[in-house]
TrEMBL record:
Listed name of the protein: LysR family transcriptional regulator
Gly residues bias spans: 1-15
Key words, A-Z: DNA-binding, Transcription, Transcription regulation
InterPro entries per record: LysR_HTH_N, LysR_subst-bd, WH-like_DNA-bd_sf, WH_DNA-bd_sf
PANTHER family xref list: HTH-TYPE TRANSCRIPTIONAL REGULATOR, HTH-TYPE TRANSCRIPTIONAL REGULATOR CYSL
The species this protein was found in: Streptomyces mutabilis
Length: 322
């Protein structure tokens, strides 16, 4: 099949020809209709009867206003303003275009008000989902800083393991998440916001605390430990670093509970360095060196793929990097 002169642009219009109803058109609607700034200028000229006055009201120079009017006249193909030493007067065509412009500007103002209402509703709340270590030891400081910047934003925090955080985000139940696992969960984008290190700890008196040499990775892997539940970032990192773990001595759902069990002398554990600073300084727990294994990990902010955080979520993300 041959192509028509000018060709179609995929919308039923032709470029430099006629549309399917025989109307002459040139380019897209955006090229044929003046922008809002030009329409606002025309309305100001109609109201004030002066191009100079309209320019001052809109905060532009008179030459810039004249240039914009001429550009609008070329775009529409009609004269809009008669200029004289006594002022500026709309032509008959200019008066008609001004009536249309007023409706367009009013519609744009309604659009802007609606968009602002959507932003206000978005900014009125922030739902955060975070893995336990981040929720307990890092987020409180970030949220205090956020409140000083956005005092009217209500923040809710959902704490759980890294798997649960991903599920919350993908279900639309959280605006921003924080995880500490080995990799980024499927369906999420991420940014590294901090680094952490896991350490082996035990109560004073445990045989490991009296050893002169570090324990071997294989021994650690074979020893029943007090551990977080499956799905936690801490357990994922430890399992990946050791290539597998023995059956847990005790399995608990929070870092605080794991610490309490370790302090009681129930057995050794592996916890974030962030979580045990006080216990180490007061000697309620002792750090146990481990040979030939790296237990460092990245802490990440996460959000659904392709949906970069906006509003309060974006502000919180920036605070994590401050």
């Amino acid at each position: 099949m041959g192509s028509s002169a000018g060709g179609t642009n995929g919308t039923g219009d032709t470029e430099g020809g006629q549309d399917v109803r025989g109307r002459h058109v040139t380019g897209s609607l955006a090229h044929r209709v003046p922008d809002l700034g030009a329409l606002q200028l025309l309305l100001a000229v109609a109201r004030l009867g002066s191009l100079g006055g309209a320019a001052r009201e809109l905060g532009i120079t008179q030459p810039a206003a004249s240039s914009r009017v001429r550009s609008m006249e070329r775009q529409l193909g009609v004269a809009l303003v008669d200029r004289s030493p006594r002022g500026s007067r709309l032509t008959d065509a200019g008066a008609l275009v001004t009536d249309w412009a007023r409706r367009i500007v009013e519609a744009a103002e309604a659009f802007d008000a609606g968009a602002q209402a959507l932003r206000d509703r978005r900014d009125s709340r922030l739902r955060v989902a975070a893995s336990m270590t981040i929720a307990e030891y890092l987020l409180p400081g970030w949220l205090v800083a956020l409140r000083s910047q956005l005092p009217d934003t209500a923040v809710s925090l959902l704490a759980g393991n890294s798997t649960a955080v991903a599920e919350r985000l993908l279900a639309g139940e959280a605006d921003l998440g924080f995880v500490e696992g080995v990799s980024v969960p499927t369906g999420l984008d991420s940014a590294v916001i901090a680094h952490d290190r896991l350490i082996v700890v035990a109560a004073p008196g445990h045989p490991w605390t009296r050893r002169r040499r570090p324990i071997e990775a294989a021994e650690l892997a074979a020893t029943p430990l007090i551990l977080r539940e499956k799905g936690s970032g801490t357990r994922q990192v430890l399992d990946a670093a050791l290539g597998g773990l023995a059956r847990p001595l005790i399995e608990l759902s929070s870092t605080t509970a794991v610490k309490a069990a370790a302090v009681s002398g129930a057995g050794p554990s592996v916890l974030s360095e962030l979580a045990v600073g006080e216990e180490l300084s007061t000697r309620r727990l002792v750090s146990v060196p481990v040979a030939d294994v790296a237990l460092a990990r990245d802490l990440r902010a996460v959000w659904p793929t392709g949906h970069r955080p906006t509003g309060p979520a974006r502000r919180l993300l920036s605070l994590t990097r401050a």
